[in-house]
Write a structure and sequence with these properties.
This protein is mainly alpha-helical and about 170 residues long. It contains ten helices and no strands.
């Protein structure tokens, strides 16, 4: 069995270390060890340059560390590497949104929905852009569209927002 695994890894040109860098990065992300995760993902990129999921994960780690510019850079690299990667477009949109770059954020969210018409998270985010633009009618249309696609997710988001509002952590509801 061991010989088979060694042959498999050699045949696939994958080393044990390469497999572990990505998995290690994911585990570090889960444990909120963002800079260590970035290092693990960068090591993974050394042998897998342009891997869109890895680039997206690095962007996410930088975003969680409030390094928005670096997050945006890696999200842009992720969508360049895989123009069909809806999650990376949504994440890029979130980072842009939090920098008050609403028009570009909306474009990213809409691209995410175009790529995945069932992507309720991106639909909610489009609604948030319209809400920030004081267009409640269009915001509600996107909210309702998201609710049609994934009612449970929308309910979870609404409950979380209501809880934050009650706790004083959300000032506009």
């Amino acid at each position: 069995m061991v010989l088979f695994l060694i042959s498999f890894f050699l045949f696939c040109n994958i080393s044990f270390a390469e497999v572990n860098y990505y998995d290690s990065g994911m585990e570090l992300l889960d444990n909120k060890k963002y800079y260590k995760a970035i290092t693990a993902f960068e090591n993974h990129l050394n042998s897998n340059p342009g891997d869109s999921r890895t680039l997206n994960n690095i962007g996410f780690a930088y975003y969680k560390k409030n390094e928005r510019d670096k997050a945006i850079k890696f999200y842009r690299l992720a969508v360049k590497a895989d123009p069909g990667y809806a999650v990376a477009y949504n994440n890029l949109g979130i980072a842009l949104y939090h920098g008050d770059e609403f028009d570009e954020a909306r474009t990213c969210f809409k691209k995410a929905v175009e790529l995945n018409p069932e992507y309720a998270k991106a639909m909610i985010n489009i609604g948030l852009v319209y809400l920030r633009r004081k267009d409640k009618k269009t915001a509600k249309e996107w909210y309702n569209r998201a609710k049609t696609v994934n009612e449970n997710y929308v309910r979870e988001r609404q409950n979380a927002a209501e809880k934050k509002y009650r706790e004083g952590k959300l000032h506009h509801w």
